[in-house]
């Protein structure tokens, strides 16, 4: 056994083959505290306050690359990080999620048409510098406050209820700050929405919808369940007739027609979908396309109800006219508005409470702060209308701002308070590329006109569905996810959707 003893000695004396990203400071935070990995010992607890005193990213020094701090990993923030030049800037991203969600295809994951990973793009793949460069980082945290005078953001780690130490608080100094925090679902102050409805904006929302849907299907097949309870459990109600609500209703009707009726024969006649909208569904499309969508959804078994919700209870919703609608699954998709945190920021505000910006996406009255995406809107003084909360708006703003910041960095204005005299060039201009929406049964709407009254391509049907899928496949961020999406579509077409409840 001499060879074994020698092997142990060599292993004990050999240094691990791991190169730190920064030899002087491998990580600017106590990593065990940041990710909740610290051992539960008295020594570790006693040492924690001492580490906390220096656990910040301080201001950059002369000769160092300036630091861009990006808040958010939505369409705007992700496109910005993709376009930033890591040779010019250190890039630090702060977000409660470590991925971007390809929201146009999120509804497809709820019923098993696509896998969840097919619509989630890791931040490290979008901007590799975050994983490789010494001064660039991603922090799974939320921003709690912004000090625009000292160029500092206060952050707090996300623990998701895991049994770890308390959330870790830290500060990050910035040279340039980009607020891309998106928006949150509107509830219009209706009682019970947050407690009983499921929103459809994140991957975990889609996972919850899928689990609830399949659970209700299996529970409704249990002996002894009354007819009334079966109908309630298998009644899927969608509130909101925008693109997300309509596409989810279409996906759900396809799932019912092609998979539920085949695999849940005992309860197939009980499951149904109701779409509730206060006005017209798909109001951004013209009358002809809206009428086509209405007819197609009705033909697929979706019941359309025009009305507004007054109250939401655990098993039923009450409309303003007094109608009670029992449900087993309630999905809320009624548009978005600025988050509570965005409203609380002491920054100029655009209409509807968004962060006010000028033509170059800057936040006036403060230095080196920009806002893009759904959380921002043009100030009235610019003479421009607030742009709609669309993915293509956010993506275009992210691309524009990345090019602008790269230009500022190359001309010597990258550091804090150094860009006052730089020519910013042409302001941001948005040109609408059109709208698309799937309505199920291999049918979709495509409107590539600048407005409902303008000239251009406007069609509906199977060919539109082919254009819809082709366009979204090309817009998926990486080749990896494009491959996933294409394979998922192919396997679903051949073998049907997966109905396993995992």
UniProtKB/TrEMBL annotation:
<keyword id="KW-0285">Flavoprotein</keyword>
<dbReference type="InterPro" id="IPR045024">
    <property type="entry name" value="NDH-2"/>
</dbReference>
<keyword id="KW-0274">FAD</keyword>
<keyword id="KW-0999">Mitochondrion inner membrane</keyword>
<keyword id="KW-0520">NAD</keyword>
<keyword id="KW-0576">Peroxisome</keyword>
<dbReference type="Pfam" id="PF22366">
    <property type="entry name" value="NDH2_C"/>
</dbReference>
<keyword id="KW-0560">Oxidoreductase</keyword>
<keyword id="KW-0472">Membrane</keyword>
<dbReference type="InterPro" id="IPR036188">
    <property type="entry name" value="FAD/NAD-bd_sf"/>
</dbReference>
<dbReference type="InterPro" id="IPR054585">
    <property type="entry name" value="NDH2-like_C"/>
</dbReference>
<keyword id="KW-0496">Mitochondrion</keyword>
<dbReference type="Pfam" id="PF07992">
    <property type="entry name" value="Pyr_redox_2"/>
</dbReference>
<protein>
    <recommendedName>
        <fullName>NADH:ubiquinone reductase (non-electrogenic)</fullName>
        <ecNumber>1.6.5.9</ecNumber>
    </recommendedName>
</protein>
<comment type="similarity">
    <text>Belongs to the NADH dehydrogenase family.</text>
</comment>
<feature type="domain" description="FAD/NAD(P)-binding">
    <location>
        <begin position="67"/>
        <end position="398"/>
    </location>
</feature>
<feature type="domain" description="External alternative NADH-ubiquinone oxidoreductase-like C-terminal">
    <location>
        <begin position="432"/>
        <end position="498"/>
    </location>
</feature>
<dbReference type="InterPro" id="IPR023753">
    <property type="entry name" value="FAD/NAD-binding_dom"/>
</dbReference>
């Amino acid at each position: 056994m001499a060879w074994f003893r020698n092997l142990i000695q060599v292993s004990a004396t050999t240094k691990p083959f791991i190169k730190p990203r920064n030899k002087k400071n491998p990580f600017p935070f106590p990593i065990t505290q940041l990710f909740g990995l610290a051992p539960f010992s008295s020594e570790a607890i006693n040492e924690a306050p001492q580490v906390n005193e220096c656990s910040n990213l301080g201001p950059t020094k002369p000769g160092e690359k300036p630091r861009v701090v990006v808040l958010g990993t939505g369409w705007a923030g992700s496109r910005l990080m993709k376009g930033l030049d890591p040779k010019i800037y250190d890039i630090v991203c702060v977000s409660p999620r470590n991925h971007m969600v390809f929201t146009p295809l999120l509804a497809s994951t709820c019923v098993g048409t696509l896998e969840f990973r097919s619509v989630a793009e890791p931040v490290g793949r979008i901007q590799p510098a975050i994983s490789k460069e010494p001064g660039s980082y991603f922090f799974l945290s939320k921003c709690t406050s912004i000090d625009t005078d000292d160029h500092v953001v206060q952050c707090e780690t996300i623990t998701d209820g895991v049994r770890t130490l308390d959330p870790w608080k830290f500060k990050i100094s910035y040279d340039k700050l980009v607020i891309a925090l998106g928006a949150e679902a509107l509830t219009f102050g209706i009682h019970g929405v947050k407690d009983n409805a499921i929103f459809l904006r994140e991957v975990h929302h889609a996972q919850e919808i899928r689990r609830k849907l399949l659970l209700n299907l299996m529970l409704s097949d249990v002996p002894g369940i009354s007819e009334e309870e079966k109908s309630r459990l298998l009644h899927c109600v969608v509130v909101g007739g925008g693109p997300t609500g309509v596409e989810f209703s279409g996906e759900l009707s396809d799932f019912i027609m092609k998979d539920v009726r085949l695999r849940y024969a005992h309860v197939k006649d009980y499951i149904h979908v109701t779409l509730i909208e206060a006005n017209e569904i798909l109001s951004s499309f013209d009358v002809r396309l809206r009428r086509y969508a209405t007819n197609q959804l009705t033909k697929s078994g979706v019941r359309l109800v025009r009305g507004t919700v007054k109250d939401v209870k655990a098993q039923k919703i009450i409309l303003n006219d007094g109608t009670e609608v029992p449900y087993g699954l309630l999905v809320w998709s009624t548009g978005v508005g600025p988050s509570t945190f965005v409203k609380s920021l002491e920054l100029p505000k655009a209409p509807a409470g968004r962060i006010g910006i000028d033509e170059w996406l800057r936040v006036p009255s403060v230095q080196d702060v920009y806002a893009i995406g759904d959380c921002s809107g043009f100030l009235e003084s610019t003479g421009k209308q607030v742009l709609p909360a669309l993915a293509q708006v956010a993506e275009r703003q992210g691309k524009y701002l990345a090019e602008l910041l790269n230009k500022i960095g190359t001309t010597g204005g990258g550091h804090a308070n150094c860009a006052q005299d730089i020519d910013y060039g042409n302001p941001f201009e948005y040109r609408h590329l059109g709208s698309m929406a799937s309505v199920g049964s291999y049918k979709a709407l495509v409107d590539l006109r600048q407005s409902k009254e303008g000239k251009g391509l406007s069609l509906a049907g199977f060919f539109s569905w082919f254009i819809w899928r082709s366009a979204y496949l090309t817009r998926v961020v990486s080749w990896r996810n494009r491959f996933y999406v294409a394979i998922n579509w192919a396997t679903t077409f051949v073998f049907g959707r997966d109905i396993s409840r995992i």
